[in-house]
Design a protein that fits this description.
This is Por secretion system C-terminal sorting domain-containing protein. GO terms for molecular function: copper ion binding; electron transfer activity. The chain is about 10% helix and about 40% strand. With about 190 residues, it is mostly beta strands. It folds into two domains: about 90 residues, Sandwich (Immunoglobulin-like); about 70 residues, Sandwich (Immunoglobulin-like), CATH 2.60.40. The chain has a four-stranded mixed beta sheet, with no helix packed on it. Strands 13-12-15-16 form a four-stranded antiparallel beta sheet, with no helix packed on it. A three-stranded mixed beta sheet has the order 1-3-7, with no helix packed on it. The relative contact order is 0.14.
Length: about 190
C-alpha cells in the first residue's frame, strides 16, 4: 500500500511540473483573436488591464463551459484550468465584437511523441537556410549536422529554428537532434 501511495505521489508531482500558466491581457480593444494553443492541464489567466466590466464566457460548441461572471477593475483576474482536448471559443459578454478568442487544448507532447512523430525540415532541398519545426514542450539538448562521410559540420546546444547552411558545399546532409538522451535524424539536400 505504501508503494502505491508513493507512486501516485511522484506521478502527481511529475504531472504538476509539466503544467504551464498562460497570461492574457483582457481589455477593451484587445481584438477578436486572443487565441492560445495549450496542453491539457494548463492554466489560462485573463488579466484585466482597464477599469471596464468584462466577462470571460465560453461560446456554444466550446469543449468546456466556463463563465467568469462580471468582473471590474484594473488588476483583476480570472483563471481557468483546461482539461478537455478541443476548441474553446470565448468572448467578453459586454464587448463580444472587440474581445474574443479561442483556447485550443491539445494532448501533452512528450519526448516519446517527439521521437515517434519527429520534427520537420523545410525547404528541402535548400540553398541557404533550413527551418526546423519542433513539437511544443520538447526540450532539445543539441542540434548537429553531418555530411555523408560522417563528419560533423555544424553543432549548436541552443536550438535555433533557422540554421544558415549557405557555407556548406552542395550535397546530402543529416540533421541529428538530441533530447533527454534520445536522438532523431533527418536528411536534407543542399543545392
Amino acid at each position: 500500500m505504501k508503494i502505491k501511495l508513493l507512486t501516485l505521489f511522484f506521478l502527481g508531482i511529475t504531472s504538476l511540473s509539466a503544467q504551464t500558466t498562460h497570461n492574457l491581457n483582457w481589455q477593451i480593444g484587445i481584438g477578436t483573436n486572443v487565441d492560445l494553443t495549450i496542453e491539457v492541464g494548463d492554466t489560462v489567466i485573463w488579466n484585466w488591464t482597464d477599469n471596464a466590466p468584462h466577462t470571460v464566457t465560453s461560446l456554444p460548441g466550446s469543449a468546456e463551459s466556463f463563465n467568469s461572471g462580471s468582473i471590474t477593475g484594473n488588476g483583476s483576474t480570472y483563471s481557468r484550468v483546461f482539461n478537455i482536448v478541443g476548441s474553446n471559443p470565448y468572448e467578453c459578454s459586454f464587448h463580444p465584437f472587440s474581445m474574443a478568442g479561442t483556447i485550443t487544448v491539445q494532448n501533452t507532447l512528450s519526448v516519446n511523441d517527439f521521437f515517434k512523430n519527429g520534427f520537420s525540415i523545410s525547404p528541402n532541398p535548400v540553398k541557404t537556410v533550413i527551418n526546423l519545426k519542433m513539437p511544443l514542450n520538447v526540450k532539445i539538448d543539441e542540434v548537429k549536422i553531418y555530411n555523408l562521410l560522417g563528419k560533423e559540420v555544424y553543432f549548436n546546444s541552443i536550438l535555433e529554428k533557422q540554421i544558415n547552411i549557405s557555407k556548406l558545399s552542395n550535397g546530402i546532409y543529416l540533421v541529428k537532434i538530441s533530447s533527454e538522451g534520445k536522438t532523431k535524424t533527418k536528411r536534407f539536400i543542399k543545392i
